[in-house]
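Memo to structure team: turn this sequence into structure tokens by end of day. - J.P.
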Amino acid sequence: MTELIENKSSFAVHRNEEFEIDLKVVLNLIKHSYKLIAVIITICLIAGIYYAETRPPLYRSTAMIEVGNNSISGAFGSSGAGGGGVAELAGLTSLQSSTAAVESVLLQSPYVLSQVARQLNLDISVSPHDPGFFGRKWAEFRDISSGTAAVSFLKVPNNLLDKTLILRVQDNNHYTLFTEDGKKLLTGAVGQLASTAYFSEPVEIKVSALHARPGEKFDVVKQPLTDVANSIGLGLGMKEAGEGTGILELNYTSGNREQAQKLLNSILAVAVAKNVEEKSQEASKTLQFISQQLPISENTLERTEKKFNQYSAASGIFDTKGGGAFLESEINNLRQTLEELKFKKMAMLQKFTPLHPMVIALTQKEQEIRAQINSIKKKLQQFPEAAEKGIGIQRNMRIQSEIYTTLVTNAQKMEMIKASAISSVRVLSPATYPISRIPVKKKVIVFGSVLFGFMISLAIIFIRHLLSPVIEDPDVVERMLGIAVAAIIPCSQSQANYDRKMKYDKLYANTKSFLLARENFDDAAIEGIRSLRTAVQMSLIGAKNNVIVITGCSPSVGKSFISSNLATLLSDLGKRILLIDSDMRLGKLNECFGKVKAPGLSAYLKNEANLEEIIQNVIPDRLDLITSGLYPKNPSELLSQALLNTLIQVVKSRYDFVIIDTPPVLAVTDSALILRHSSVNLMVLGVGKDQMKEAIYAKNILEKAEISLTGIVFNTLKQSKSGFGYNYGYANYQYRYGQDK
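Reply from structure team:
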């Protein structure tokens, strides 16, 4: 048998191509889902307008602070020739992160906000216990209002954090605390701290006020401080007023005026207190370090003085003058500077690593001073050995004396700093009381809701399209199935109008038959079937018989429409055609030609009628029809009998073409029983209805039965629904037969 087109199994099958989406596909998906898009956008628009109109008012309190750069290291004095070198290190502060930026991070972190939550008891939630629907209705009926309770302190173990505790009122001064599952924890009095143990962990509570009826319940929750701090941080905003100014503009947004001002003032107070605490702790650490160094320096000074006195008594040299004295003074100054740098470096190592830029700069300065000392030492080598030794001892004594004096002075300074630490965070203006609410940007909300609705609708459309990819592209079908597309049938508006009338007007359906090839012979769909007629004729050249079977994956894809019109068009060529409706479950080909259903194929297979009795003439000498007949209970068994083969053997010799319309492949097994008798097997795929996985599955079923498909018929069920333009111009370019004028 000659194939319709060579099998395209040599093509590589790329599954991704089934899901490729280009701009044209996107636009057509949007175009043909405009109703869904409009509904979703309308819903979102209504929700946006409702939110804009009913949104609770928001208020914003503002404040301003200045963040300085007061460092404890700046409190250390410097003297001598090296003082200027130490002062140059002030430029290293530019290597540090912006102090204002650091402070802004701290202000929005749990480091500050947890303390705010603790001070204001924001981590303790107290609310009336929900009595349920009937309880609320009973309270409304009796006009009973809820009482109030205030808890000023609550401590629970970690396993009770964020868990509801039930506080039940005994009277206005006493209460009982239960766990959520009803386990009693403790009984306490108002204004007094009550405590107990829960799994060996302490539970403490202090109720500061209680105004409620006996038996009334309250839900008490201890929330994690970190969660509360993060919640507070959502309303806090800040920005620096000019780059490098160190001035921060803070604001807090809340639905309550008083709360906005109160929270922002608390944040400012905690920030200042935390900064003072940091300064005090830094001073304490530095003072502790100095206190450790003082005894060591004092002992070193005493040993140096003793050594100098002993040397002076033994050598008779008590002073050095001239050039030696000058060089001695230079070295003394440099050594003093060197010791100060060492001390400053040791102090910084308490806070920074050796790789910190400031520590590295100090190390480089040390190396420079050592180089200067070594240079002067070379000059001192010109003096007598005894004088040089005396100079060295005297120099060390003076250096140790000055170091000791510096340590004592710095210790006194640290004591003063610790006692009177001043915050580097200065409040320029406290939190303001917000008078007016923040304006609601209704236009932005409405536009955002429309945009959100559009994005949601697009997401739904594309997800639905990707999860259930319907057949729309014949190229993809050919690649996926390895079977050529024999014809593409455009949608017929005339057929669609008739189908619509049949659906809603039963009387019309019973009195009038409709065959598109007769009613509208120049319809675009008929032109598509004419191309199918040509392809079928080509495929029958050299075939084993003249039997053509038309099947499909699923019901309602247009098999009967194509079969009836193809048979009519073949008969127009002067050929004798027999059309057989083998669907003995739902076959209705008789309605296309206005013929009776019985007797039909079922009667013949049950030996209730002979061949001549079941053949009905449609077009004299050209087109005959065998209907499905009355629906039997066992159609598959009837099709398995030898009578079907006998029927086909007889009719294929009487007619030029035998066309058999079968049930869907995936619905029943009847199709496979019929397809083995034919030479041309066509499978109809409904564009926009069938899915690729269904087509692949149907092909696999037939291949297991050793049945091969000759071609695919692409049937467009709805006008331009696919949006891919694969009707080859039929929709836009109707080539009609002319009429004589």
